[in-house]
Amino acid sequence: MRRVALVTLVVGDYDEAIRFYTEALGFRLVEDVPRPDGSRWVVVEPGGEGHGTGLLLARAKDEEQCARVGDQTGGRVGFFLHTDDFARDHARMTAAGVTFLEEPRHEPYGSVAVFQDLYGNRWDLLQPAA
Q: What is the C-alpha separation between 26 and 92, in angstroms, rounded?
């Protein structure tokens, strides 16, 4: 079976990114391995093992990459976090300090609200309609 296993997300700092994705969003840390060049191989993923595409948290290495931190999709929603209980996860994330850019709304395709990660990347928290 084929699937997208990882998506790279350029971040400013490994440890602050790990804290945000694990504590505020509830992801689990899958790998955090030092590399010979001083970087780290850091992977987080939502839910249980194999229940979603993992994020490779890659620390920006140069000026060009630093310019992309928080704006990897040009201000568009670029990431979609599905949930089976929108109200629960919205409340938990709000209590954890996640910044939602809008009030929750109920669309024909499901319940949704846009939030931003600690760098400003836009995400949808989405409970698809049954």
A: 9
Burial of 48 (0-12, 13-18, 19+ CB in 10 A): exposed
> Could you report the per-residue pLDDT of 59-82, keeping only the tens digit for each?
999 999 999 999 999 999 999 999
Strand partners, 7: 55
Task: Compute the distance between CA of residue 40 and CA of residue 80 in angstroms, rounded to an integer.
Answer: 25
φ/ψ of 108, rounded to 5, equals -55, -30
Neighbours of 29 (CB within 10 A): 14
Q: Do 130 and 82 form a contact (C-beta atoms < 8 A)?
A: no
pLDDT in tens, 6-40: 999 999 999 999 999 999 999 999 999 999 999 99
pTM, entire model? 0.91
Structure tokens belonging to residue 107: 């669309």
